[in-house]
Amino acid sequence: MSAAETTAPLDNAVSTSAPPPVDAARRKARERRHAVARNARHVFFALLLSGAGVFAVLAMRPQAVPIDTARTIRGPLVVAISEDGMTRVKDRYLVSAPVTGSVSRLGLEPGDAVKEGDPLAEIAPTQSPLLDERTRAEAQARLGAALSALGQAQAQVSRARVAKELAEQELVRDKKLSANGSISAQALEQAEFGLRMRSEELASAEFGGKVAVEEVRVARVALGREGAGGSHDRHVDVLSPVSGRVLGIQHKNAGVVQASTPLVEVGDPSALEVVVDLLTTDAVHVLPGTPVVIRGWGGDHAIEGRVRRIEPSAFTRPSALGVDEQRVNVIVALTEPHRNWETLGDGYRVEARIVLWQSERVLKVPQGAVFRHGDGWAVFVVKDKVARLTPVTLGHRGETEAEISAGLAEGSVVAVHPGDRVKDGARVELR
After folding, report:
1. What are φ and ψ of residue 399, in 5° steps?
2. End-to-end CA distance of the chain
3. Which residues are CB-neighbours of 420 under 8 A, at least 6 positions away?
4. SS3 helix, strand, coil % of the chain, rounded to 5?
5. b/e string for 58-84 if b means 16 or more Cβ within 10 A?
6. Which of the four pLDDT bands, split at 50, 70 and 90, describes residue 73?
7. Is the pLDDT of residue 80 over 90?
8. How far apart are CA 297 and CA 343, in angstroms?
9. Which runs of E-coded beta strand occur in 285-342?
10. pTM, whole model, 2 decimals?
11. Backbone φ, ψ for residue 97 (5° rounding)
């Protein structure tokens, strides 16, 4: 073996058994970096798992329900029914034509003052109808016959008058002869009887003459009034039955009217009442004397009144939705002086508030806080942000509030319109 070959293995052996110090330091540094990275990954995963757990716990926790609340307080409460109404004159008179005729043009206007007995209109006889040729010829023939009958009656009157004069003369002669004894008493009596007979015949003829005169008049009226105006000297006055004002004119212009045709409506507008039509289910709670407050009539103050009468018969009227409703009229009398509502007239729209019950101090809550629970009523009382189902006893119910007779104390906080999400024991928060 040569010297070179012997030296090479020795050099390899030395380099393998003793590495350089620089490589060892690098290896240690690399190991430390791997350890730090491994620890950092462990910490990161631990934090990630902790965050996921916290998130899961928060997600599974019930959320607070936002609600509106109110407090139970003591104060006034009014139970009332509000409905639209209409004013009307208590005693109104619709004056009609008493007879058939030609009415004159009315000079009155709505609002004019009238007194009892004042003439409202004049009704004159109507004009004669026009005659056709045949009817006119018949009327002329009747007139000629009537004139002939009149002449005949006048002739009979003249003959009866002459006969009576002759009987009177004969009676005078017989009386003289009877005084001389020339004729018997029986002849004298016959002469007196003859005079009486002639007198009766003259009276009968005169009556016949009067009948003939009237028949001629009838025939002339039937023929001579054709196309002429009615008699202006004869008319019927339509008088006002009461003192008051004209409420309406039903027939303004002149013209022919039939009997019972409406002409004028008269009444006293200072004597008003209010008619309110209520649902029959509400009207059963209203009694005569119930106080009423009239609003929405245009004035700057309310008008007080009282129920005077509830009509005994109801009627059917469709609602705004087209549903038939049974309603009844409630008559309200205004109790305030006329000067407080003198601008209010007949047929005006008003808003009536009929007060069924009222108290100055009751324990009350908003109606939105009360709801049905079983056969009774309940509320959700909020305490420490937790809703507790609490049964209550209701008293009177107003338009927006309800009386609590039992179950709550003054100052309790209740949920208003809680909704389906609020249950007994649920967490809530104020909006």
Report:
1. -70, -40
2. 103
3. none
4. 35, 35, 30
5. eeeeeeebebebbebeeeebbbbbebe
6. very high
7. yes
8. 10
9. 291-295, 303-310, 315-318, 324-334
10. 0.62
11. -70, 125
